[in-house]
Amino acid sequence: MFLQSVKNAVIGGSLAAGLFLSAGQAFAGKGSFKIGDILERTGKFQTLTTALQLTGLDQAIAGDDALTVLAPTDKAFEKLGSETLEGLINNPEKLSEILLYHVIPGEVGLFEALQAQEAATLNSASVSFSMEGFGFFVNDARIVFPNIRASNGVIHAIDSVLLPPAPPSIADIAAGNEQFSTLVAALQATGLDQVLAGEGTFTVFAPTNEAFAKLGEETINALLKDPETLSNILLYHVVPEAAVEAATAVTLKSATMANGKETKLMFDGKDLFINDSKVIATDIMASNGVIHVIDTVLVPSAK
């Protein structure tokens, strides 16, 4: 019963898509033109077309690979406001990230999307599809005209621009991973958890629970009662004002940490080391930097 209701609603929505296009634009529903051509010629997606051209993504949707485009109308972009739009135009990287959140690999018709309920986009995040009454939604955006067929996929016109979810902060990632529970407790004891949850750019070499265990329970408990010393140690694990990914780290000989002390970096052709600690996982990306996991706590010299 539910599936039949969905099918009936989808058929109605597809007919609406035909009405959305003027008589002179009826080609768009017949799959004879590529996605980019349809977006440009219908006159309803001028802002989207411009954004695709600015980022070079117009070439991506001009290929033969099947794609599903969740296409915000011009009115959808207007909802963002002129200031936000101008900011995006001046930030092609951010604009590209947003646009890729509107593209699903493969051809996914509305009925299939509603059945699946979720789909991964080209920026590695997912969107969710739902039906409320006889209205269709992707996230919180209404699908106003579904199933506009192209020769290389399908377009679903939407009434709001989709904004990809922000990646978690360094502090959020640490708090959500059990192997960092001792590190999280230390950060909270010093208030540095708030720093790593906020704005800024940081590279954190994060000791695991096993790394802290090497210090011994007595030492750990003593440090938790001495926020000043503990803070100095924790800051020795942070490179401030930079997100140093592994590809860059392996080329460096040293790094200045947030407590002002130097660490030595060494790559032996296989493994990366910081001082005597081995980096066992790299490039865990966060909204405010990057985390590399290490197997030994770094202890700054007293000098």
TrEMBL record:
Domain FAS1 as annotated: residue spans: 32-162, 167-298
Origin: domain of life: Bacteria
Secretion signal span: 1-28
Pfam families in the record: Fasciclin
Gene3D superfamilies: FAS1 domain
GO cellular component, one term: extracellular space
Keywords, ordered alphabetically: Signal
UniProt name for this protein: Uncaracterized surface protein containing fasciclin (FAS1) repeats
Lineage of source species: Bacteria, Pseudomonadati, Bdellovibrionota, Oligoflexia, Oligoflexales
